[in-house]
């Protein structure tokens, strides 16, 4: 998945290529952000492969756990 995100008037504006929406409307995508407490404006734009490559790539198949659970720094202590 590729996208661009920027701050716009106190909100997050997320730009997504039209072939990356998975069939969701802009309202449905914005609703998913809202469901997580993020006020986002979603803009879906037609883009060719070359234009889309300039957007930020995101691997959606990875599960980030670096900051989601305590990590022992010394035996018996957690940060």
Keyphrases for this structure?
single chain; 79 residues; alpha+beta; 4-stranded mixed beta sheet; two-stranded antiparallel sheet; 2 helices; 6 strands; 18% helix
The assembly state of the depicted protein chains is single chain
Per DSSP, what share of the residues sits in E-state strands of 2 or more residues? 25-35%
Largest sheet: 4 strands, mixed
Quote the distance from N terminus to C terminus: 33 Å
Helix content: 10-25%
Return the structural class.
Answer: alpha+beta
List the helices and strands in order.
Answer: EEHEHEEE
Shape: extended
Enumerate the spans where pLDDT stays under 50 for 5 or more consecutive residues: none
Radius of gyration: 17 Å
**Annotation field: number of helices:** 2
Quick recap of the structure?
This protein is an alpha+beta fold and 79 residues long.
Description:
The chain is of the alpha+beta class and 79 residues long. The protein is built from two helices and six strands. The chain has helices spanning 26-34, 49-53, and strands spanning 2-8, 11-17, 40-45, 56-57, 72-74, 77-78. The protein has a four-stranded mixed beta sheet. Strands 5-6 form a two-stranded antiparallel sheet. β1 and β2 form a beta hairpin. The two termini are 33 Å apart. The relative contact order is 0.22. The mean pLDDT is 78.
Chain-wise SSE layout:
Blueprint: E1 2-8, E2 11-17, H1 26-34, E3 40-45, H2 49-53, E4 56-57, E5 72-74, E6 77-78
Parallel strand pairs: 2-3
Antiparallel strand pairs: 1-2, 1-4, 5-6
